[in-house]
From TrEMBL:
Membrane topology: Multi-pass membrane protein
Entries under InterPro entries matching the protein: T2SS_GspF_dom
Entry protein name: Biotin synthase
Keyword Magnesium assigned: no
Localization: Cell membrane
Species for this entry: Vibrio inusitatus NBRC 102082
Keyword entries, A-Z: Cell membrane, Membrane, Transmembrane, Transmembrane helix
Length: 280
């Protein structure tokens, strides 16, 4: 009887200890979950607040980023708030450390130019370079599209296929092709090609879009035309390169005169001038 009572008491103590331990762990888990949820909620509030600043211009900023080859949506979300924050920090720094009125005005102008204008100028420069690069890579994409059409693919299928396969070749051109393919599924290929010419406004892209539009409207065979179009674009690039090489001689004449001809003249005349100055 005593042994049974002893085992019952020990079992009760063990059960009580296990219960206390499990309650403690459950309390810690609830506290941790509450703190994590609080932290996530606070981050979500800050994220939504910062993302909501300048919400009316989000589409314009997104177009600028995409045209410049920047496809990170997080950068898009914080672009305007970051500019405002940097401008505020620059303003506070100027008010604290610049005391002369003229220097303060110059500093304010420099801050406005550096924080507001320079990033947009950088995006515009990237857009111009990206457009030129896409135009240079366009003949290779047209050749691949001609091969796809010859194998029996439709234009929509060729765009969809190239939008996936061109990632390793050129991610920027791949993005334009994939965006055109997605737009074609929503509003038709002709409207998608018009949007492509607006995003990449070059004569090569317009010729490419016009060729595909004629194929859609009149049902002409597009594969040979695409091959000829790619060949014409390559010949045009070769002519442009030859023109640049031809202009290079004229551009090098000024450095040639300044850095080579003048030193040679000085080396020739220096001994005689030195003898004249020394009286020999």
């Amino acid at each position: 009887m005593m042994i049974a009572a002893f085992f019952i008491s020990v079992s009760a103590l063990i059960a009580l200890g296990i219960t206390r331990y499990l309650d403690h762990k459950a309390t810690q888990h609830r506290i941790k979950s509450f703190l994590d949820g609080k932290k996530q909620a606070n981050f979500s509030i800050v994220h939504d607040f910062l993302g909501g600043m300048g919400k009316g211009t989000q589409r314009e900023i997104r177009n600028k980023f995409e045209d410049a080859g920047i496809y990170n949506k997080d950068l898009l979300r914080y672009y305007q708030p970051l500019k405002f924050a940097l401008l505020a920090i620059a303003t506070i720094g100027i008010l604290l450390f610049v005391h002369e009125t003229s220097d303060m005005l110059i500093s304010f102008m420099g801050a406005i130019v550096g924080v507001i204008i320079v990033p947009d100028m950088y995006l515009a420069l990237r857009k111009k370079r990206l457009i030129d690069k896409n135009s240079r890579q366009l003949p290779y994409m047209i050749d691949m599209m001609a091969v796809c059409v010859q194998t029996g693919m439709t234009l929509e299928g060729a765009f969809r296929y190239l939008g996936d396969e061109l990632k390793s070749f050129d991610k920027d051109l791949c993005y334009q092709i994939r965006k055109t393919s997605d737009a074609a599924e929503v509003k038709g290929m002709e409207a998608a090609l018009v949007d492509l010419t607006k995003r990449v406004p070059t004569p090569q892209v317009r010729s490419f879009a016009l060729t595909l539009t004629q194929n859609i409207q009149y049902g002409t065979s597009v594969a040979p035309v695409l091959s000829d179009l790619a060949e014409d674009f390559r010949n045009e690039q070769i002519l442009v390169m030859e023109e640049k090489i031809g202009k290079l001689a004229a551009k090098m004449s000024a450095p040639l005169i300044l850095f080579i001809m003048f030193p040679i003249v000085i080396l020739i005349l220096a001994p005689g001038i030195t003898r004249m100055m020394t009286g020999n």
